[in-house]
Design a protein that fits this description.
about 800 residues; mainly alpha; 6 strands
């Protein structure tokens, strides 16, 4: 019962106060007319602050006016309005004959400014003092329960409401509907709404808003239609409630209809309606229309600015979002925490460290430096701007870290390729008893995928199952992608097949996994299966399948998919798609077609396009087109040394030594360096790194001695060193240099330190060179080992003298 549970919270009654007196109109004191005209009464009417009220109080006491009901009621009411509940109680308690109105006023004050416990306790006190409740008592309490999400207390208040005969009161039942909706019990809210004998516009708006706020936009829209059918016309509140639901659904046509209604009803010029329209059009992909409405607004509040900034960010135009943000500051509108978070989001998307630091400096000015949500956005911004060191410093100093804080720093390290730090923070998070959520897992799993270690993959998979995230489509998609990137493509497909629900990203991960593992045919088959289902391919899907075709020589299939992309799905190819098509044609030796394809592009080709062309020219030793592609690359990205190395290798393959020297001279003058080849192999929880020609490893002597014997063995099996296939090293064609490539050193180390028959996993930071590829095939043959090599582009599975790529990569 409410009385037994909460009576301890009742405000104390003075020990010398008389027992409660029944409140009847006949017992109320007649108020003399001069009381209304007393200066103190006039001052109370004009009072605007608690300071003024305390200055007037001595005048009331001095003139003996406190015994008058007018002053008693006014003082209690004013103290409550100014959130001075202690003083309101002091004014209330000494009154010997309290009017019911005093109880109702003080209860409203407790409900508005105090805790739910104190409000309910005072309600119990009212009943003990024989004060009959009025409908407003229940609506005040129900509102607090809804705002606090206190469903249990809310049900108790609902029960008391029924007991006191208000179950058919329109105002009371609207409060009940609102309470259930705000507590997330929307179906119970609708049940109460449906039982109402009559409904007004407020009750309709309450249930419509409830459905919209609980993510059931479709049902909210259905109720608007039903409301109109029952003869109720929507008002300002209806429009402001329904537009967010329309926005979340992306229902532009319905949004336009609501907009038209707002114009006809004369609501369009109201700031909250215009702001809701800006938000709706932005989320429906019509940022230009949103901007027209925004620019036409005669007055704007901070929410209007936030909606426009958010609209540009969601529309992929972070630059314009920053323009709006700066304009907002120029007009003197003080940003909120939401504004700052959106601005940091824009800076992160732009990778603009300078402007991000400018926004960071604003935090102290607007007293937002202790806002945890803002600091989380700051961590994300610095991480995306490649300053994860600053992000980590902010994280360390942050008080009151939330799960979002941990997720932000873990993702930050993962995005910057610092996998070990990401995993360390993940483990530290668990040591602090912070339970991961699905976002944590989706951040950690891709980090582990970069390590490409199956043992780690199995560990995180087990943790996902124990944490009950194995039914989450995004977490399971990340697992599919991770296993594919560990070379365990069979396991990835088993997981894929077991999923009861798949997102487009799930299909993309599996198709891409097949492609990077050299299984282009399987990728194409899966893509064709996807096209028969309900989930439609997106731009990423086409990029994955065209790339898969490129790596497997499926030229005609790739050309067909590129055509289908626009004709069948209305997807405009982006720069990456054109780059993949040039790679597809170029790898197949159709260099002239690839060059013509570039010339016919509808926009200026970028680095990815010319980079693919230059790589194809290197494979097929085409000097002329290689030079043309290189010239364009040097204009677009003169600071990338890798393209100079590729051109030098093309010249070296053609024995054009003078041009090789010229390229090297240019590199020296510009301070450009080639990336040294590095191969990694894990052994007993320790990662061993090997660089081409390096002798720094503790087992170097043993490794080189073993390699010498191993090379003799594979030569006896048919291996012939390919001195024309040296990549990313000085142009020395000596056989000894070939034998010291990083892949061979890593493989030799793996063979020496693992049991016969076990699989060896190698990771390399560059493309596998032709000689190492050939040598590894023979090594797998003479040793009987399964060797998996992951280079910067794809996987090579070597077994019994054969590679999964079919020598096409």
């Amino acid at each position: 019962m409410l009385s037994s549970q909460l009576s301890v919270f009742s405000p104390p009654r003075p020990t010398n106060s008389p027992p409660p007196i029944p409140h009847t109109l006949s017992q109320r004191t007649h108020i003399p007319s001069h009381v209304y005209t007393h200066p103190a009464a006039l001052l109370l009417e004009l009072c605007t602050s608690p300071i003024e009220l305390r200055q007037i109080l001595p005048l009331i006491l001095k003139n003996g006016l406190y015994k008058e009901h007018l002053f008693q009621t006014k003082l209690v009411s004013l103290f409550c309005n100014y959130n001075s509940l202690t003083e309101a109680a002091r004014a209330f308690e000494p009154i010997p004959c309290k009017l019911d109105a005093l109880y109702h006023t003080l209860l409203k004050g407790y409900a508005k400014f105090s805790s739910l416990d104190e409000a309910v306790a005072f309600f119990v006190r009212m009943r003990e003092d024989n004060v009959e409740p009025v409908v407003y008592n229940f609506t005040y309490l129900l509102k607090v329960c809804g705002d606090k999400g206190e469903i249990r207390r809310g049900k108790e208040i609902h029960g008391q409401l029924i007991v006191n005969g208000f179950s058919e009161n329109l105002f009371a039942m609207t409060g009940v509907v609102n309470m259930y909706a705000k507590c997330g019990r929307i179906y119970e809210a609708y049940k109460m709404f449906d039982r109402m004998p009559e409904r007004d516009l407020v009750s309709w708006n309450t249930i419509i808003s409830g459905y919209a706020q609980n993510g059931l936009a479709g049902k909210a829209l259905e109720l608007v239609v039903r409301m109109n059918e029952e003869g109720r016309r929507g008002d300002l509140v209806t429009i402001v409630s329904i537009l967010p639901a329309v926005a979340n659904m992306g229902a532009l046509r319905i949004g336009k209809a609501v907009h038209g209604y707002a114009v006809r009803a004369g609501f369009e010029s109201l700031v909250n309606v215009a702001t809701a329209l800006v938000d709706m059009y932005s989320k429906c992909g019509c940022v230009g229309t949103a901007r027209l409405i925004f620019d036409g607004m005669k007055s704007r509040n901070v929410v209007s600015w936030n909606s426009m900034i958010s609209g540009y960010i969601e529309g992929g135009n972070a630059e314009e979002a920053m323009v709006i943000f700066l304009k907002m500051l120029d007009e003197g509108v003080e940003p909120t925490n939401v504004t700052i978070m959106e601005a940091l989001h824009a800076c992160a998307d732009l990778g603009d460290l300078e402007r991000g630091m400018f926004v960071h400096k604003l935090l102290d000015q607007f007293k937002l430096g202790t806002d945890v949500s803002v600091m989380n956005s700051l961590i994300s911004m610095y991480s995306k701007s490649k300053r994860v060191d600053i992000a980590a410093d902010i994280f360390r100093k942050l008080k009151g870290k939330t799960l979002v804080s941990w997720n932000a720093i873990i993702l930050g390290y993962a995005q910057n390729g610092r996998v070990n730090e990401a995993l360390n923070y993940f483990c530290e998070m668990q040591s602090h008893n912070v339970k991961p959520d699905s976002f944590t897992m989706v951040s950690v799993i891709p980090a582990l995928a970069e390590l490409s270690i199956t043992r780690h993959a199995k560990w995180i998979h087990g943790l996902v199952i124990r944490s009950c995230f194995d039914k989450n489509v995004f977490v399971t998609t990340a697992l599919v992608d991770m296993y594919a990137k560990c070379g365990a493509i069979g396991t990835a497909r088993k997981l894929f097949d077991m999923m009861s629900q798949r997102h487009v990203t799930t299909w993309n991960a599996m198709i891409d996994g097949y492609g990077t593992n050299g299984l282009g045919k399987e990728a194409a088959e899966l893509f064709n299966e996807m096209r028969k289902g309900v989930i439609k391919p997106n731009d990423v899907t086409f990029l994955c399948v065209i790339s898969a075709c490129s790596h497997s020589g499926l030229v005609e299939e790739g050309l067909s998919y590129f055509t289908s992309m626009k004709e069948d799905y209305g997807i405009e190819p982006a720069m990456d798609h054109y780059g993949a098509m040039v790679d597809l044609l170029g790898r197949a030796g159709r260099l002239n077609e690839a060059w013509d394809f570039i010339q016919k592009m509808p926009f200026e080709p970028g680095i990815t396009v010319y980079g693919a062309m230059l790589g194809a020219c290197k494979i097929h030793k085409n000097v002329e087109l290689g030079e043309q592609a290189a010239d364009r690359l040097f204009e677009l990205n003169p600071d990338e040394g890798g393209y100079h190395v590729l051109l030098a290798n093309i010249y070296a393959a053609a024995s054009m030594w003078d041009k090789v020297a010229k390229v090297r001279t240019v590199m020296e003058k510009q301070g450009l360096q080639k990336t040294p080849g590095c191969s990694l192999v894990e052994l007993r929880n320790e990662v061993h790194s090997f660089y081409s020609g390096s002798t720094s490893h503790p087992e170097s002597k043993r490794i080189y001695a073993f390699l010498e014997t191993l090379v003799d063995e594979i030569k006896a099996a048919g291996y012939v060193p390919d001195t024309n296939s040296i990549h990313d090293v000085e142009n020395d064609v000596q056989e000894q240099l070939l034998s010291s490539h990083s892949e061979k050193l890593a493989i030799a180390f793996g063979l020496l330190n693992t049991k016969p028959g076990s699989t060896i996993h190698i990771r390399k930071n560059l493309r596998v060179c032709g000689d190492c590829h050939n040598a590894t095939k023979y090594i797998s043959l003479v040793t009987g080992r399964y060797i998996i090599v992951r280079d910067m582009h794809r996987f090579h599975h070597f077994k019994n003298g054969v590679c999964s790529c079919g020598d096409y990569w």
